Amino acid sequence: xxxxxxxxxxxxxxxxxxxxxxxxxxxxxxxxxxxxxxxxxxxxxxxxxxxxxxxxxxxxxxxxxxxxxxxxxxxxxxxxxxxxxxxxxxxxxxxxxxxxxxxxxxxxxxxxxxxxxxxxxxxxxxxxxxxxxxxxxxxxxxxxxxxxxxxxxxxxxxxxxxxxxxxxxxxxxxxxxxxxxxxxxxxxxxxxxxxxxxxxxxxxxxxxxxxxxxxxxxxxxxxxxxxxxxxxxxxx
Length: 236
Hints:
The protein is mainly α and 236 residues long. It has one domain (2-228). Helix content is 80%, strand content 0%. The chain has helices at residues 2-27, 30-33, 36-59, 64-70, 74-95, 102-127, 129-134, 139-160, 167-178, 180-195, 206-228. The radius of gyration is 18 Å and the shape is globular.
């Protein structure tokens, strides 16, 4: 199982990097889109960002090595893959649009990444989802967490996407366009408390208690993205 889990995570990690590279190539600043060297440089930066995100998951109690690889915990593997993809989304969101400096990108995706961490903390405090994943090995909980992280990363990544104007302008856009991620959190906390394993239902079916709630979270995020429309500076 350890080899299978590592292979699945590696594929997810590489797929996330490919998404970052394609986002930079298609939606980055004009000078980045014209220079493959710039795309490669920023994608390498994405490797560091995704590696840090993987390490951070252990702080939440979900470890790639201990849970997914050594213990063969499929729920942890799904959650970790969702976390890495979510980190790629906020990195890509903070890296698209025109701006005078790479530091603007760092500020933008750092802001979105901080929001992602904070909303994960709120979910953890409100539901203890990592315990269901690590101790109960509940696949449905892993799927729900992956869907939750992906949904809020879509909202937060979109909130920091676009042309750079100033630090204060970026923060204001982040609040104005990213607040809906908190709404998803408010929806997710009671959903987690209802769907997690308990004495009456120690084994939750992964489809109705995992896939469906995760799909609801992502659908809410896509509705919000549709409402916002394309970001400022979208290449046409």
